[in-house]
Amino acid sequence: MQLVSEISSSRTNPLPSDLHPHVLSPTGHQPTFPSIHWHAAFVGFSGADYGSSSSSASALATFVLPATLIGWNTFASRVLFGLGLPALLLAPFCLWLAWPAVRRHYHVQAKGGVPTVEEGVVTQEDFDQGEVFLLERPEEARSQLFKLCCKYLCLQTFRLLSTMFAAAVLRRHLMVWKIFAPRFVFEAVGFLVSLACVVASFAASARVLSVMVHFYRRLEKEEE
Fold it and tell me: Are 115 and 7 in contact (CB under 8 A)?
């Protein structure tokens, strides 16, 4: 566990959780209902029945598709960061191979050392293997991926609880229904979006890892 954990440091884990609010605001979004980009529901689609509540309009064109487009426009950052969370497990190997200048930031044992799980020692040969390093330790990689997802969701939960606490404390404030309550609603919906995306990314990554490990072991048997 410590061997993979040393490579995929938890110090980078808060980064996606801290970045998505900075992606939300520069794109013109605010946690208020008037600031929702309703025009996003009509991007790329048109027609007399699209977005209409008439009986002739299908449920897909009336509700599902416009709601999906608005939701994607509002919570795109949460979707992208949630689905891209497993990339944190692969980032150290990509940085090691693509930018040699960043290698000095990793505590790597001198070449020729023998890595052990108990000591948590990572050698230069391990980094040079790239993602194959994870294929040789699938249980550790899967466990570390699960830990990354849990840490990310814990940070999202903390944000949700903080917003809930603020809305409860300021429930008698003059602007509660204009600022604090909408922000709590946005944070709650965003948490559900993040939860769904993180669960989907973990399930897909675990499945891909299992398939790649099976393929890698079959190649090793054929070489023997």
Answer: no
Which of left, alpha, beta for 121 (phi over 0: left; psi -120 to 50: alpha)?
A: beta
**Per-residue buried b or exposed e for 117-137, using 16+ beta carbons within 10 Å of the residue's own CB:** eeeebbbbebbebeeebbbeb
Distance between CA atoms of residues 163 and 168, nearest Å = 9
Q: What is the pTM of this model?
A: 0.73
How far CA 184 is from CA of 31, 126, 139, 159, 203, in Å, comes to: 8, 45, 38, 10, 28
Cβ within 8 Å of residue 72, ≥6 positions away: 40, 79
Both ends of the chain: CA-CA distance in Å? 28
The amino acid present at 79, given as its one-letter code, is V
Yes or no: say if 73 and 23 are a contact pair by the CB < 8 Å rule: no
> Which tens digit of pLDDT belongs to each residue from 94-142?
777 777 666 555 554 444 444 333 344 555 666 666 677 777 788 888 8
127-131 CB contacts, 8 Å cutoff, 24+ apart: 127/7, 127/92, 127/93, 127/96, 127/97, 127/103, 128/96, 128/97, 130/93, 130/97, 131/90, 131/93
Q: Is the pLDDT of residue 169 over 80?
A: yes
The total of other beta-carbon atoms located within 10 Å of residue 18's CB is 11
Average pLDDT over residues 180-184: 89
